[in-house]
Design brief:
Blueprint (H helix, E strand, L loop, with lengths): L1 H23 L1 H24 L3 H4 L7 E2 L24 E3 L5 E3 H5 L4 E5 L6 H12 L1 H6 L3 E6 L3 H9 L7 E3 L4 H5 L3 E3 L2 H9 L4 H5 L5 E3 L2 E5 L5 E6 L5 E2 L2 H12 L4
Parallel strand pairs: 1-11, 4-5, 5-6
Antiparallel strand pairs: 2-3, 4-9, 7-8, 9-10
Length: about 260
């Protein structure tokens, strides 16, 4: 009797252990599944809250640094030469309010940067670099000012894509572009090519004449005199921020 009872008890004990393990096993699996679900939810939330690259910043194409020998040169028929007084012009800021260049220079030297428009990836690269180096310009007492033919709403959109700490101005009446002689007109073939890239010049500028700037830079001292001038018909080639800072140091001599 005792011999029969011991195997039975042993069999019962083994059965209970097996059943207990089977019931306990799902618990860590359920916990792991819950953890995985939580991570997936967190990842989805992060993905939803993080802006896409196109929303975070406009498309940029890296520019080529201007060769040293070409720095401070103006193509024939373009730009105002060094030594002339800065012409005044009325522009609009990102709020649509009127801004006079004469009012800006009253606060100190300006680095006037004429760019083609917020649709130009090379211009966006240039403005982004100026933004990154803003502290260097500020320490020299010089304020960069970006100017294009874009409507002020477009200028506001450019400035809203990332923090640009200097003025971005709209010259929809072309006062500054004419005054500084940096305007060019795109022919129909170029307009169609830009349309092929999804760029609508008329929508950006609010104008039907398809004009925009030849990329140009003018350094104006606190007296309102042009001290350095540069323009280049090759929009892919621009003075680097390092070159511009060197120009400021040389031309203004640390005393803007």
């Amino acid at each position: 009797m005792t011999l029969l009872r011991k195997p039975s008890l042993l069999l019962l004990l083994v059965t209970l252990i097996v059943l207990g393990c089977d019931r306990a096993a799902p618990e860590p699996q359920a916990l792991e599944a819950g953890t995985s679900s939580s991570r997936s939810s967190t990842a989805r939330d992060a993905e939803a809250s993080e802006p896409s690259p196109s929303a975070a910043a406009p498309r940029q194409n890296e520019t080529t640094e201007t060769p040293t020998a070409q720095l401070g040169t103006l193509p024939e028929g373009l730009g105002l030469p060094v030594g002339l007084p800065m012409p005044d012009a009325r522009l609009r800021d990102i709020k649509g309010e009127t801004v006079h260049l004469s009012g800006l220079v009253a606060d100190g030297p300006l680095l006037l940067v004429f760019y083609r428009g917020g649709w130009c990836p090379y211009c966006n690269f240039q403005i982004h670099n100026l933004t990154d180096a803003f502290g260097e310009f500020k320490s020299r007492g010089v304020t960069p000012v970006a100017i294009s033919v874009d409507r002020f709403e477009e200028a506001a959109a450019t400035k809203a894509t990332y923090t640009i700490p200097f003025p971005v101005l709209a010259d929809t009446e072309l006062e500054a572009h004419h005054a500084f002689s940096v305007l060019r007109q795109a022919d129909e073939a170029e307009v169609e090519k830009l349309r092929g890239f999804g760029i609508d010049l008329e929508a950006s500028s609010g104008r039907a004449d398809h004009v925009f700037a030849v990329p140009a830079v003018f350094l104006v001292d606190k007296g309102g005199v042009i001290r350095w001038a540069h323009a280049d018909r090759d929009y892919r080639q621009r003075p680097s921020t390092k070159q511009l800072l060197s120009v400021i140091d040389t031309v203004l001599g640390g005393t803007p």
